[in-house]
């Protein structure tokens, strides 16, 4: 029987995605105990500070000099969906908005016409190690929305729908809905100008966890909708007549449901689907437009305006150590969790 799987590709540092997604970055770090400044309580002299993606000792500083993370940098013309399953992220941006989220929260940011933001990983635990597990998914915007006002929305873990399904053996699979619909359950609404805000685009972002030896199904989608199942933790699964080991991106067909039979270990997946935008993509770092001229204009705008400027004391701004999970939006709205 011919397999209905389109392709199977190994996962790298940036996971391969399909239109309307641009890529997915996966960060899993076991940081050491934190120091009073919320950085790692260890010597950093052996690391390439500012460009540390080494994974040495199981973690990286990334672009951070004292606290790990990604200091202030611009985005324009697309969206980021940051899912912080473990650990914390300190967000600050050029709109004056800020937040600390994590341990199951997600943040949806439509960069649109341009925004600068920083994402730092404060290490609050001084007595134990600090684990961070973060997905950042880049979702493209169509030409008609490349310049919408920048906006970010918090999706707190207490509000994110999780569906638990049991198979005939009583073994469970959970589906955490960041975007899209599963059966009669809908995810929280995305940012208002998001490509995912139109249900006709069938955008779905799910985190799936399956018990060892559990069986679960993925429903079929409308013809032409792209979808990929990222198998990032576990042993082996059976899908579409093939055995697939973990560490693979599985590109699925559209008008077909898939039954997945898990192996002998608990399995973790990220599932992405969406109707392709089918427009030319021209990318220059954190700028994603439709032509080289638009890229030049975007870079020029950033050089002139800094997308509103940076209102914080440091490009590596972190929030007070005593603060819990919170968000302050550009309109002054405050959320505390």
From TrEMBL:
Alphabetized InterPro entries for the sequence: Pirin, Pirin_C_dom, Pirin_N_dom, RmlC-like_jellyroll, RmlC_Cupin_sf
**The Pirin N-terminal domain covers which part of the protein?**
63-139
Q: Which residues form a coiled coil?
A: none
The segment(s) forming the Pirin C-terminal domain are 208-308
- PANTHER family referenced in this protein's UniProt entry, alphabetically: PIRIN, PIRIN-RELATED
Q: Which family does it belong to?
A: Belongs to the pirin family.
Q: What is this protein called?
A: Pirin
The uppermost taxa in this organism's lineage are: Bacteria, Pseudomonadati, Bacteroidota, Cytophagia, Cytophagales
